[in-house]
Design goal:
Elements (H helix, E strand, L loop, with lengths): L2 E6 L4 H12 L3 E7 L8 H4 L9 E2 L2 H7 L5 E4 L3 H13 L3 E4 L6 H14 L3 E3 L5 H14 L5 E7 L9 H10 L23 E3 L2 E7 L5 E9 L2 E9 L6 H11 L5 E3 L6
Parallel strand pairs: 1-2, 1-4, 2-3, 4-5, 5-6, 6-12, 7-9
Antiparallel strand pairs: 7-10, 8-9, 10-11
Helix pairs in contact: 4-5, 6-7
The protein binds 1,4-dihydronicotinamide adenine dinucleotide (NAI) and the ligand O=C(O)C1=N[C@H](C(=O)O)C[C@H](O)C1.
């Protein structure tokens, strides 16, 4: 039986790629979309080149009230809307697969406790590209041997959140194996604030935003006489769709919140 899917953000760069993916996959059935600007219209009225037509809802509550057969919500929107959509989906026992980044730690904890107490599966994946997940895993391995590490993430200049969800997740994974240390010179001073980047437990994160970029990250380790660079590039948003597919299938079997695609690969 097909998995019934709702996509939030169908006009966005990621959302439209997700609609194309669901169009192709016979194991999934698109039931509706959530789009804050086009409630009451249909998908093809808004984006004529899509081959499937479904109703559009402005708010998640109405969408799930009127479609009680929905299995999975795929959210690819903006942080505050994504957080609200996820909460509403869980309340309706719809399993969220969330690609939207920029949630706070507190928001993730809250969603986790709702998902776990309701026994409704939920996946929050800061990066759906398999290569990016491998880059994070390799960085976690390398940090056992190289505690000095900087993360450089580079994205298109329409990105709202900095640092990227991927960079935060990478630092979180690295700190699981890295011996805590303060990097750089003990007396170093920023003569321009921000020069040394953001800081997660002493791991520095630098965010680049430029037109022409899609999604890229380098994790650079340094030690006496050597450096090791682990690098991943998404040149096309199609790179994320294998992970979205996997997420939709896996969340159907889950009864709790999973943070990070690495936990289901
Ligand atoms: N997990 C992953 O692998 C990936 C995650 N992302 C994340 O996905 C999200 C979307 O990224 P893009 O598609 O590049 O952005 P985009 O700007 O192209 O699309 C954003 C979508 O959100 C909708 N939106 C904006 N404000 C809204 C609101 N207040 N309420 C409801 N909908 C609203 C827009 O209509 C649009 O459809 C971002 O958080 C981004 O960081 C992006 C790429 C990969
Ligand atoms: O906004 C993007 O484009 C991306 N966002 C995600 C993030 O914040 O890590 C994933 C990927 O890097 C693309």
């Amino acid at each position: 039986m097909a998995i019934n899917v709702v996509i939030a953000g169908p006009r966005g760069k990621m959302g439209s790629e997700a609609v194309k993916m669901v169009e192709k996959e016979t194991e999934f059935r698109l039931v509706a979309c959530i789009d804050r600007k086009h409630g009451g219209k249909t998908l093809q009225e808004v984006v004529p080149h899509f081959s499937i037509d479904v109703p559009i809802y402005e708010d998640a509550e109405t969408c799930f009230n009127e479609n009680n057969e929905v299995d999975v919500l795929v959210d690819l929107t903006v942080p505050e809307a994504g957080y609200q959509h996820t909460k509403i989906a869980l309340a309706h026992h719809v399993r969220p697969v969330v690609g939207t980044t920029g949630f706070s730690e507190l928001q993730i904890e809250e969603l986790s406790s709702i998902s776990n107490s309701q026994n409704v599966g939920c996946l929050i994946a800061p990066n759906f590209a398999i290569g990016a997940v491998l880059m994070m895993k390799f960085a976690k391995m390398a940090a056992t041997y190289f505690p000095d590490v900087d993360i450089i993430e580079k994205h298109h200049d329409n990105k709202l959140d900095a640092p990227s969800g991927t960079a935060i997740k990478t630092a979180e994974l690295i700190r699981e194996t890295r011996t805590a240390k303060k990097q750089g010179h003990p007396n170093e001073k920023e003569t321009l604030p921000g020069a040394r980047g953001a800081d997660i437990d002493g791991i520095k994160i630098h965010s680049v935003r430029l037109p022409g970029l899609v999604a890229h990250q380098e994790v650079i380790f340094g030690s006496d006489g050597q450096t090791l660079t682990i690098k991943h590039d998404s040149m096309d948003r199609a790179s994320f769709m294998e992970g979205v597919k996997l997420g939709i299938n896996k969340v159907m079997e889950e009864r709790r919140l999973i943070y990070g695609l690495e936990n289901i690969l």
